């Protein structure tokens, strides 16, 4: 994953300009020796090749690599946020479906009760309401 992504990005940036530096001893691997090897192996007439320019190029490359991976992490973060939002939305829709199904199931009883209550006195309505587990409310007007 990450190694492949890095390798692809570096290949895209460097392309066919890459080369390999080999040495026989650790003391051969100095920045000056690398600069000399590059000067012998590559056409460097278009730019100044020095230890300082290599260091600057390395710093710039590290910033580019860091920006690349920051962008990859941001994409991952945005995908996760989108997935979480999708899950929350699906859960909300499921709760709405359940509520609607419960309402539809209760609708015949509500209609029956509404018809029955229209013919009952207030004490009978309150007694009937207390018998069931169905939630509800009663609104009545009292004339004094």
Write up what this structure looks like.
With 144 residues, the protein is mostly helical. 70% of the residues lie in helices and 0% in strands. The mean pLDDT is 82.
Protein topology:
Elements (H helix, E strand, L loop, with lengths): L1 H13 L16 H11 L9 H67 L4 H10 L13
Largest sheet: none
**How does the overall form come out from the CA principal axes?**
rod-shaped
Distance between the termini: 80 Å
**Arithmetic mean of pLDDT:** 82
The helix/strand order is HHHH
Per DSSP E runs of 2 or more residues, the count of β-strands stands at 0
| Secondary-structure-derived class | mainly alpha
Gyration radius, rounded: 38 Å
What would you call the quaternary organization? single chain
State the helical fraction.
Answer: over 70%
Low-confidence stretches: none
Treating each run of at least 4 consecutive H or I residues as one helix, how many helices?
A: 4
Strand content: under 5%
Key structural traits:
144 residues; mainly alpha
How would you sum up this structure in a few lines?
With 144 residues, this protein is mainly alpha-helical.
